[in-house]
Design goal:
The protein has helices at 12-17, 23-32, 36-45, 85-97, 112-121, 131-143, 151-163, 177-186, 195-207, 212-215, 217-227, 248-266, 281-294, 315-328, 348-368, 376-386, 390-396, 400-409, 425-433; strands spanning 48-49, 64-65, 71-76, 102-105, 126-129, 168-171, 230-233, 271-275, 300-303, 333-335. The chain is α/β, with parallel strands linked by helices.
Length: 440
């Protein structure tokens, strides 16, 4: 039984490489029913990460990467239009109850640090943030504009998040002067849709300077090693429309991130890669293969991907379609998309729908990848359906309460459901191919 992270003098990766006991790895191996050696080997070569900041005392660690279940993240957080922390706390409860493996706090309104501290105290799963959001908003309040931030402002935000126990942070290190020039020459319909990418691009162009996180990457690695948090190298130039998918700017950023992965591993820092975005279905597999090749097998964390731009109100479905394809091709971590994507701040129902849709996509992909045991629950469900065992069917459903509600919603035949009633195929065929005597 995992007893929580304890402060260590070594990072998790250093403990692995020195042959020491790594309780986080033991917990992941036990919870996923995989050999401990598989987890330790993946940690050592960087194909598995276990983000586990020792300061996150309520954490039950999750593993992300090769040979493990495809994981699901739920985004939440305040905005400038809605600063109800209790509401975000309720959304976090819903996400975890529905099976989310990670929470990302993307707050941009109210007391951002207080919100983060409240959420993380109550969060038993992996917790991530994007420090540049807070840094940029603080700069507006204290200096008048995001472009007036100093390099120290950027890194002070990272350190603050680390001190609060954040397990992984999205840092947009690959948005460089070179990638921005590629973007200019390429031309895009939706240009930059990442908030972090937009903040950094504005800062760089206004100050005629390089990205501070790229220019001072060793400083970032020092902080990650000191506080033992994982780096999630963000895709600041991810496509925000199908028209912009797989362009030169996107892949130039990915090439740079691949180089930074190698430097992180050499520094004993855990790292994974974030990916797009909006991508046509026929380009998803190639995008995953490109990331795995350029980034030396680093775990891949994708937003969706969304396979059409016109799913407003149903983008949890467009995201789940793309997520299933991406994960089956080798992506390791799906960021959920809610029905409110592109429309507004999600509520509790949106969070529930988003997590469930992504969990379905993740599970379908695990079956396609041949993950040991992934098909077992589906086989059990099929047997329960054959046996017309409704209690077991409801118990095995991804959302049992919803399955029970649907079952009870309309009058049902004693054995079958109201769709077929007395003409249920299972009942009829069992009379002739099974053991039940045919009725005369």
């Amino acid at each position: 039984m995992y007893g929580g992270c304890q402060p260590n003098t070594m990072t998790l990766i250093e403990r692995v490489r020195n042959g020491l006991t790594v309780v986080e790895a033991e917990h992941v191996a036990q919870s996923e029913n995989v050999p401990l050696d598989l987890v330790l080997e993946g940690l050592a070569n960087g194909t598995i990460v276990i983000p586990a900041n020792p300061r996150h005392s309520s954490l039950q660690p999750r593993g992300f990467g090769k040979g493990l279940r495809t994981k699901v993240n739920a985004n939440l957080g305040t905005s400038s239009d809605s600063c109800d922390v209790e509401r975000e706390l309720r959304k976090q409860h819903v996400a975890i109850e529905c099976g989310a493996d990670a929470i990302m706090d993307l707050s941009t309104g109210g007391d951002i640090r207080s919100t983060r501290q409240t959420l993380i105290r109550d969060c038993s799963v992996t917790f991530g943030t994007v420090p540049i959001y807070e840094a940029g908003i603080s700069a507006i309040d204290t200096r008048g504009a995001i472009v007036d931030m100093t390099t120290d402002d950027f890194f002070a935000a990272v350190q603050s998040h680390a001190e609060d126990g954040v397990d992984f942070m999205t840092i947009h290190c690959g948005v460089t002067r070179e990638t921005i020039e590629r973007l200019r020459r390429q031309g895009r319909l939706t240009k930059i849709v990442s908030r972090g990418g937009a903040f950094l691009t504005g800062w760089m162009l206004h100050n005629d300077r390089e990205n501070p996180f790229y220019e001072n990457y060793d400083r970032l690695l020092d902080l990650a090693r000191e506080y033992d948090f994982a780096l999630s190298l963000g895709d600041g130039l991810r496509p925000g429309s199908l028209a912009d998918a797989s362009d030169r700017a996107q892949f130039q950023e990915l090439i740079i991130l691949g180089e930074l992965v190698q430097r992180a591993r050499e520094a004993d820092v855990q790292v994974f890669i974030e990916g797009p975005g909006h991508i046509p279905m026929d380009q998803i597999v190639a995008n995953v293969q490109m990331e795995k090749t350029l980034c030396q097998g680093a775990p891949f964390y994708v937003l969706g991907p969304l396979v059409t731009d016109i799913g407003a109100g149903y983008d949890h479905i467009t995201g789940a379609i793309g997520g299933a394809i991406a994960a089956a091709a080798g992506a390791d971590f799906l960021c959920y998309v809610t029905p409110s994507e592109h429309l507004g701040l999600p509520d509790e129902d949106d969070v529930r729908d988003g997590v469930i849709a992504s969990r379905i996509a993740a599970h379908a992909a695990d079956i396609a990848k041949g993950l040991p045991g992934a098909l077992d629950v589906d086989r059990a469900m099929s047997k329960a359906r054959k046996d017309l065992d409704w209690d077991t069917q409801i118990k095995l459903a991804l959302v049992p309460d919803l399955a029970r509600e649907r079952r009870q919603k309309t009058p049902t035949h004693e054995e079958a459901c109201s769709m077929c009633g007395k003409y249920c195929a299972m009942v009829i065929v069992e009379q002739y191919l099974g053991t039940t005597p045919a009725k005369q």
